[in-house]
């Protein structure tokens, strides 16, 4: 059995037993109305893009993989939305390959939409009272300042026993805001019922990092500063703003991608060996890495850039600042790169380079572990003894091991050979994976409060340096590989 299969089996088993415990301990407001134990997913911000584009399709894959699972979906938002329109949105999202599975049919049958101002305690109380269920999951698909207001209202009115809060990224918009939000949410429910969402933790390749790293005798002994020269985590996208200027222009690549997703991936690559893959062991180890991490010199160790007009895969793309909804005065970057140091005995001196950008020439979503060259290459070899590297592709799932071998035809020359493999994907989209863990109360795929704060602590010196314009804003043509001179070895 491959490591990924082992990890997958463990996850499923853990979920099954957690679900059983929950079912045994759950309470129902009105058992006559809901004879079978059930969970209601109350989505706040349901009329938004995230719900249709990511959340509902995630649920669709979950209900297809586990048709017996019961999830009632209640959508709520400020916006008035016709019940028929909501039903159509849910049906469209739940229909996979044109087919509505049995689990999806049940979910669709029970779904409804409520127009409500969830920041108003009275309206929120009425909304929650209208839901008869065993266990409530409140999903905040909302901007951080609105999430904070809703949590303020929840603190006033209280939540039903067992309620879970699932909070979308970004968690706060600064260290101070994240600390304030953490203090607030933990006054409402305990930490183990707070799921700070990072859908990258539901990516199979990201999860497979654990199996790959910890179950291979071949890798673990060379996973440190003695053997590794640097680690790159790259997330180059071809997508542009996709109508998200309202959100993106206030955040930029550093906050949108590096502060959250890429630091989480970095932490999983850098964690110390864990005794178990329990939520506690994993999250303790992640916390330890993040506490030890910093961007030592933001002027020297960061770069930023913004795209200008160009064309991507035949699509004409305007200058970023000419995109609808963009405020040029904000000086938002669409490509960011930082060098993080992890000050531990394992990693001291090894740069972790994290980079992400939009409107680039091609999709490169990968981590690359670069090993040092061997201490001595026997004299007499011709050709190149390029250092070994492991490339882990997040999308599509896969990996490549680049190693040096004897050259073809002449055994006394050297050349690079690439061993390719697939890392087992799964039936669920990342949001499906994350939602499954929420519904099963398994916090392994959620960000713990301390980690969310640490990620802000790591990037804030950069944000301040950039605000003072101490790092130049470069430009790159949309559809190019980035600014000149920014090439990486990946
Ligand atoms: O590759 P994925 O799964 O679409 O994730 C990337 C996206 O992740 C989101 O969290 C960011 O807000 C987007 O800007 C980004 O495009």
3D structure, described in words:
- It is built from 12 helices and 20 strands.
- By secondary structure, it is an alpha/beta fold.
- The chain has 2 domains: 3-197, Rossmann fold; 203-425 and 435-477, 2-Layer Sandwich (Dihydrodipicolinate Reductase, domain 2).
- Strands 7, 8, 9, 12, 13, 14, 15, 16, 17, 18 and 20 form an 11-stranded mixed beta sheet that branches. The chain has a 7-stranded mixed beta sheet with strand order 3-2-1-4-5-6-19. Strands 10-11 form a two-stranded antiparallel ribbon.
- A hairpin with a 6-residue loop joins strand 17 (398-406) and strand 18 (413-421).
- Helix 1 (3-25) packs across helix 8, helix 2 (49-65) packs across helix 3 and helix 9 crosses helix 10 (279-291).
- The longest helix is centred in the middle third of the chain and has 26 residues, at 245-270.
- The radius of gyration is 24 Å and the shape is globular.
- The model is unreliable at 1-35 (pLDDT under 50).
- 6-O-phosphono-beta-D-glucopyranose binds at residues 237, 239, 256.
- Residues 43-208 form the Glucose-6-phosphate dehydrogenase NAD-binding domain.
- Keywords: Carbohydrate metabolism, Glucose metabolism, NADP, Oxidoreductase.
- InterPro entries: G6P_DH (IPR001282), G6P_DH_C (IPR022675), G6P_DH_NAD-bd (IPR022674), NAD(P)-bd_dom_sf (IPR036291).
- Pfam families: G6PD_C, G6PD_N.
- Residues 212-484 form the Glucose-6-phosphate dehydrogenase C-terminal domain.
In short:
GO terms for molecular function: glucose-6-phosphate dehydrogenase activity; NADP binding. With 490 residues, the protein is of the alpha/beta class.
């Amino acid at each position: 059995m491959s490591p990924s299969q082992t990890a997958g089996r463990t996850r499923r088993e853990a979920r099954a037993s957690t679900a059983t415990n929950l079912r045994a301990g759950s309470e129902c407001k009105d058992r006559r109305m809901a004879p079978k134990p059930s969970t209601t997913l109350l989505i706040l911000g349901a009329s938004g893009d995230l719900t249709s584009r990511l959340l509902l399709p995630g649920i669709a894959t979950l209900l297809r993989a586990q048709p017996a699972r019961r999830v009632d979906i209640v959508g709520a938002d400020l916006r008035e939305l016709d019940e028929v329109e909501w039903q159509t949105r849910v049906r469209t999202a739940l229909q996979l390959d044109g087919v509505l599975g049995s689990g999806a049919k049940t979910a669709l049958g029970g779904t409804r939409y409520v127009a409500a101002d969830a920041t108003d305690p009275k309206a929120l109380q009425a909304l929650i009272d209208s839901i008869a269920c065993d266990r409530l999951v409140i999903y905040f698909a909302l901007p951080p300042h609105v999430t904070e207001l809703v949590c303020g209202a929840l603190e006033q009115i209280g939540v039903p026993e067992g309620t879970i809060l699932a909070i979308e990224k970004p968690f706060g918009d600064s260290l101070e805001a994240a600390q304030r939000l953490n203090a607030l949410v933990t006054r409402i429910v305990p930490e183990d019922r707070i799921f700070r969402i990072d859908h990258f933790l539901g990516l199979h390749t990201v999860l497979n990092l654990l199996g790959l790293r910890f179950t291979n005798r071949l890798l673990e002994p060379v996973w440190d500063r003695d053997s590794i020269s640097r680690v790159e985590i790259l997330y180059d996208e071809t997508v542009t703003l996709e109508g998200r200027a309202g959100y993106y222009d206030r955040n930029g690549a550093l906050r949108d991608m590096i502060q959250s997703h890429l630091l989480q991936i970095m932490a999983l690559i850098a964690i110390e060996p864990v005794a178990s893959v329990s939520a506690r062991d994993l999250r303790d180890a992640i916390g330890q890495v993040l506490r030890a991490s910093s961007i030592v010199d933001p002027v020297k160790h960061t770069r930023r850039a913004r795209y200008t007009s160009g064309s991507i895969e035949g699509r004409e793309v305007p200058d970023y600042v000419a995109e609808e909804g963009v405020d040029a005065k904000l000086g938002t970057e669409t490509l960011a790169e930082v060098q993080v140091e992890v000050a531990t005995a394992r990693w001291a001196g090894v740069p972790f380079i994290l980079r992400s950008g939009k409107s680039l020439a091609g999709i490169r979503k990968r981590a690359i572990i670069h090993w040092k060259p061997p201490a001595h290459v026997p004299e007499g070899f011709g050709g190149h003894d390029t250092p070994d590297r492991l490339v882990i592709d997040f999308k599509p799932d896969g990996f490549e091991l680049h190693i040096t071998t004897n050259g073809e035809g002449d055994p006394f020359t050297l050349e690079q050979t690439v061993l390719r493999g697939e890392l087992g994907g799964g039936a669920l989209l990342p949001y499906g994976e994350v939602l499954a863990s929420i519904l099963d109360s398994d916090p392994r795929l959620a960000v713990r409060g301390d980690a969310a704060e640490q990620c802000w602590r790591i990037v804030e010196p950069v944000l301040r340096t950039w605000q003072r314009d101490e790092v130049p804003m470069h430009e790159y043509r949309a559809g190019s590989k980035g600014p000149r001179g920014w090439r990486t070895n990946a």
